[in-house]
Design brief:
Blueprint: H1 25-37, H2 49-71
Length: 73
């Protein structure tokens, strides 16, 4: 489950690549191809801290309902 805001990757910044020195160029090219096919999501306001736990629980329960339905349990 992904319940966080979209991540911004500053891949044009040389410091970004310090953690990814072993990443093959073909793998990054594949990532770019996928990203370029997508469309940006509208910016959403962050969930207030006091509601974050409730939101996470709701997302978990929705995922479990989907899984149970998928597995026919």
């Amino acid at each position: 489950m992904i319940v966080t805001q979209p991540r911004i990757f500053a891949f044009e910044d040389p410091k970004f690549w310090e953690s990814y020195r072993g990443t093959p160029a073909w793998e990054f090219e594949r990532f770019l191809a996928i990203a370029e096919k997508g469309t940006p999501r509208p910016k959403q306001e962050p969930v207030p801290k006091e509601l974050a736990q409730l939101r996470e629980r709701e997302d978990l329960e929705a995922s479990l309902r989907y899984t149970y339905k998928l597995l026919n349990i």
